[in-house]
Design goal:
Largest sheet: 9 strands, mixed
Radius of gyration: 20 Å
Number of strands: 16
Number of domains: 3
Helix content: 10-25%
Number of helices: 7
CATH architecture of the largest domain: 2-Layer Sandwich
Shape: globular
Distance between the termini: 20 Å
CATH class of the largest domain: Alpha Beta
CATH superfamily of the largest domain: Alpha-L RNA-binding motif
CATH topology of the largest domain: Alpha-Beta Plaits
Strand content: 25-35%
Length: 234
């Protein structure tokens, strides 16, 4: 994570420390549950290094699921005739973290814990996501080297990544960032067309043998490690 810069708004501080999302932090502040150096915080207050921050929260039990998104299912904002994750599962009151495009399939984290959004998607944090990719034609000989050192996609140079060649037309790639359609755009920049794209891991959460369209709870040691890597506080 980038070095914390003070002073910062109290809602950002609470989000970075894993207490709540910025929006939820604002609610805590409005309810008088946040104290800065013994005084009730106000919306827009700033925190300085060394300030004593106290938060009174009601204990809540959150839910976390691994979901194998089928190809054709939309992650967010479906258009007319499209099916999204919320309508494709029996779970209620949860939301997907991040996106996986309509043509892709594989692992999505579902939860009702808004703190995960900030910790998993904020570019200041580094978390691995692994994908299995099949392409139309045999991979170029220098494909691995060029992908790993970073690819210029429309003016943005991607961060270094890990690539394992699994066959003439197959490879695994592990990213620590998540630009829109990043793998497809990286491959297109190298003249490679993707035939199938599947996400198989997010941090320590693995897709494993989970069938397409099914979900399973993330619990016990797997959940402890997941939250530990995110730096979330209970």
């Amino acid at each position: 994570m980038k070095e914390t810069s003070y002073p910062m708004r109290i809602n950002k501080y609470l989000a970075l420390k894993g207490f709540a999302t910025r929006r939820a932090a604002d609610l805590l502040i409005e309810e008088g549950k946040v104290m800065i150096n013994g005084k009730k915080a106000l919306l827009g207050d700033k925190v300085h290094e060394g300030d004593a921050i106290a938060v009174r929260q009601n204990k809540r039990s959150y839910r976390y699921f691994a979901y194998n998104k089928p190809m054709g299912v939309i992650t967010h904002s479906p258009q007319l005739g499209e099916k999204d994750i919320k309508s494709a599962t029996s779970l209620r009151g949860i939301f997907p973290i991040g996106r996986l495009d309509k043509r892709s399939h594989g692992l999505i984290i579902l939860t009702d814990d808004g703190r995960v959004t900030e910790r998993l998607l904020n570019p200041d944090y580094v978390h691995e996501k692994e994908y299995r990719v099949t392409v139309r034609d045999p991979l170029p000989k220098d494909f691995k080297k060029r992908m790993e050192r970073g690819v210029n996609i429309e003016g943005y140079m991607t961060r270094q990544c890990k690539v394992e060649i699994a066959g003439p037309k197959r490879f695994h790639i592990t990213l620590i960032e998540g630009k829109k359609h990043q793998i497809r755009r990286m491959c297109a920049a190298l003249g490679v067309e993707i035939d199938d794209l599947e996400r198989v891991r997010i941090m320590n959460i693995k897709l494993g043998m989970l069938r397409s369209g099914d979900h399973r709870p993330i619990v016990k040691g797997e959940l402890v490690e997941f939250k530990k890597q995110l730096g979330l506080l209970d």
